[in-house]
Amino acid sequence: MTRYIVANWKSYKTLSQAEKWIETFCSLYHPDPHVHVIIAPPAVYLAPLFQSLRKYNHSHLSLAAQDLSPYPMGSYTGAVAGDMIRNFVDYAIVGHSERRRYFHETNQEVAQKVAEAAAAEIKPILCVDLPYARAQIAALDEADMGDLVVGYCPVEAIGLDIPQSPEKIRAAVEEIQVYAPEKPIFYGGSINAANAGDCIAIEGISGLMVGTACLDAKNFAGICRAVSQP
């Protein structure tokens, strides 16, 4: 079974730093056919990094958007519509806790983003947290959930050194599976090279979402190797 690992760069890096990250990571990480690496840089770097990655010919590596507009292309100044990025990305993160907190995104707005991703044939990674997961998932239109991935990203574990306990993660997975049966579930929260192997081995977890620890390419390559271990 394929394991997934997402590198969420958040709002970091200049273009030259981003290109250097790609160069360093691709020189250190030897692709594993059972691991799919998803890199989520800032939107302005999607096109140039898409071109940079082509020369490395890594079939198990793709790009993701960190966000996208809840509207299609049109008179929405500053918005990045799904159709604008569909040629560069396979995935889009939606509903991240930082978007909800700092940009005041509602469940309805996030649901619109999931719909726009689906319309552009981009797989949405919907970030949820307990005890809100039921409402966050219920806001979606079932027609938009075909390629849905659920990212369980507990706020209490983001930006710390220790992830949630395996027992807590497993309990959360079981609850999320009630609301989104048969959908892949990724875990995000304080992932590093030391704990990635244990976290990916938790029953029901298909992938990991890495934040701060992915900003260093060498460090992220180590996390990917940890996920590759059986």
Task: Please identify the top-level CATH class.
Answer: Alpha Beta
| The CATH homology group name | Aldolase class I
CATH architecture: Alpha-Beta Barrel
- Characterize the main sheet: 8 strands, parallel, barrel
How many domains make up the 3D coordinates?
1
Name the helix and strand elements from N-terminus to C-terminus, one letter apiece.
EHEHEHEHHEHEHEHEH
- C-alpha termini separation: 11 Å
The structural class is alpha/beta
**Average pLDDT number:** 96
Broad shape: globular
Subcellular location: Cytoplasm
EC number: 5.3.1.1
Protein name: Triosephosphate isomerase
Family: Belongs to the triosephosphate isomerase family.
Structure, briefly:
The protein is an alpha/beta fold.
How would you characterize the overall build of this protein?
The chain is α/β, with parallel strands linked by helices and 230 residues long. The protein has one domain: Aldolase class I (TIM Barrel). It contains 9 helices and 8 strands. The protein has an 8-stranded parallel β-barrel, surrounded by 4 helices. Helix 3 links the parallel strand 3 and strand 4. Helix 1 packs parallel to helix 2. The longest helix is centred in the first third of the chain and has 14 residues.
